[in-house]
Write a structure and sequence with these properties.
alpha+beta; three-stranded antiparallel β-sheet; globular
């Protein structure tokens, strides 16, 4: 990286703590988590309207995950960027996501609202195979008894 933009990125992301040493290192000499973090920074700095990240949080330690969560929240709030994250560990998303979509065998199994501050879940609707909400399905079962 060279030029004015490169210097801005260095100051913003690589000027403090453990990230400082990464700037001058060849990418292949960094740990897997450090490489993932650098790639995420590259994605964030490309200023996309929609950012899709697979396997979110894998290889990142708590400090790197906290840092990137903060940056993604700011990106969503200030720029209106839609951020789609996939992970097998929902705990990594609870404090970041506004909506959690759970898949099972390639199909949407449930959709849950999540409070961004603290990850508390809001009202949930779980759909059965016919597309009815669970509550309606339970009401029908009671009427049929």
């Amino acid at each position: 990286m060279h030029g004015k933009r490169s210097e801005e990125i260095r100051k913003q992301y690589f000027n403090t703590g453990f990230q400082r040493f990464m700037w001058d290192q060849p990418i292949n000499s960094l740990s897997m988590g450090e490489q993932v973090w650098v790639k995420l920074i590259n994605a964030v700095e490309s200023d996309p309207r929609v950012l899709i990240i697979e396997h979110y949080g894998e290889y990142l330690d708590e400090d790197l995950l906290h840092d990137i969560n903060r940056r993604l929240r700011r990106m969503n709030k200030n720029l209106g960027t839609t951020i789609v994250l996939s992970t097998s560990d929902q705990r990594k998303l609870k404090r970041l996501a506004s909506v959690l979509i759970f898949l099972d065998k390639g199909h949407v199994a449930k959709i849950r609202s999540s409070n961004q501050r603290g990850g508390q879940q809001g009202p949930q609707r779980q759909r059965n195979k016919r597309g009815d909400s669970r509550r309606r399905g339970q009401q029908r079962q009671r009427r049929n008894r």
